[in-house]
What we know:
alpha/beta
Amino acid sequence: MDQTALTRIADALERMAPPPGAAPDFDAAPAFVWHVDPDRLEPVPQVNRVGLELLVGIDRSRDTLLENTRRFAAGYAANNALLWGARGMGKSSLVKAIHAEINADHPALKLVELQREDLPSVGRLLNHLRAAPQRFVLFCDDLSFSHDDQHYKSLKAVLDGGIEGRPENVAFYATSNRRHLMPRDMIENERSSAINPSEAVEEKVSLSDRFGLWLGFHPCTQDEYLAMIDRYCTAYGVQVAPDVLRAEAIEWQATRGSRSGRVAWQFFTDLAGRHEISVS
C-alpha cells in the first residue's frame, strides 16, 4: 500500500475518532454542561436557579447538603449525595441553589451537569476534572435506569472510581424520583424470576448504597404549599389579600390534581404575570 493511501486512511480514522478537546478555562464561568460528539465542556455564565431562601419545607435536606457542600468546597472530606423522592419538591433546585450559595465564598467550586445518556463518557469527563485545580460538583438530574439499561455500570466510575479512585476534587450529586434508581416492579420481577434472586438485583440495587448521603423529599402539606407561595410573594413584592391568595392557590392546585413546590411556583408565575411582574 502506497503512502498516499495510508495518509487517506489515517485522515479518515482521525475524522471518525478526533482527539479529545482541550479542557476549558474553568475560571470563565461558575457552571458547565458536558457534551459528547465531540467531547466538550460548555460554559454556563448564568445558571437557571432560584435563591436558597425561597426553598420552603425542605429544611433538613437543605442543611445537610449545604454543610456537605461547604466541607467539600473547603477541601475536606464529603459524600456523594442522592436526592430522591416526590416530583417537583425542589431536588434539582436545591443542588443549584446550594452551589450558588457556596460559590459566592468559594468561586473555585464549579457545577458540572452530566446528562444520564452521557454516563458512558464519564471516564473522559473525569480525566478533564481530575487535572484541574478547581473543585467540582458533578450533577446528574433525574437519574434512573430501566431493565436493560447498562449505563449504571458507568456510574460506578464516579462513585467508586475503580483502581484510580474517585478524583479528590469531584463530588457527585444526583436526583431521582426512585430511591433505588429503578422501578420497584423491575426489582420484584428479577427477584421472582432469577435462579439466585438476591444476586440478580444486588448489583443494581446496591448502586444507591454507594451514595453516602440519601436525602428524601416527600409531598408537601397544604400549609407548606401556601407557605411557598407566601415566600415568593414577599420576595418579588406581589401584594394580594391573604384570603384571595389562599383561595386562588388552593383552586390552582385542585385543577392540577397535585401539590408540590413546582405547582406552587407555576401558580406564582401566573399570579406575577397578572400583576405585570417579571420573575426571570
